[in-house]
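Researcher: We're teaching a course module on how sequence relates to structure. For the next exercise, students receive a sequence and then see the predicted structure as tokens, so they can try to spot secondary structure elements on their own. Here is the exercise chain.
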Amino acid sequence: MDKQEEHRMGHRNFYDDFFERGHWWLKIRQVLVALLCWLIFIIPCYVTIMTYRAHLTHGRHGFFFWRYWEGFQEIDFLIVFLTFALGMIAVFCLAVGFIQNQRRHGLVEKWPMIDLDENQRKIDAAENFMTKRFGPAKKRHAVRYYVVQPEQNLTKNQLKTIIEKKAK
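Model: And here is the predicted structure for the students to work with:
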């Protein structure tokens, strides 16, 4: 890694060449692809909306790009279905918002999301197992390079099994 790349990576966990200096071909190519994708999305929406508008107004507004009766039925179904779906989402959001508002004001009992005692038992079981297998936590966290011996390797789901067994 050269100094410039090391400097770039030192302050952030990620970087994107699109936002760095230079890289003009990358920027041009990505902008063109983004514009093409937006056109691929917008043109069929425009055609469908204008055709449906012409259908509803008997040709006074909009344009008839196509005149398939099944297409108009499909659009009618989608409008009803999406309206129902948005209504259900609105009811859910309003209900959850109301419940959270009641909890915030202390009008409803705040039930715990997790069992804190059970969670602490799981943490202790995991820590005890790791201490037996790899040594004390201070040593594990202080060392920079550690070679795991073959007999120290964990089998699949071994830690999960030990935590669940000891937590009960």
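Model: If you want an answer key for the exercise: The first helix runs from residue 3 to 11. The CA atoms of residues 131 and 137 lie 7 Å apart.
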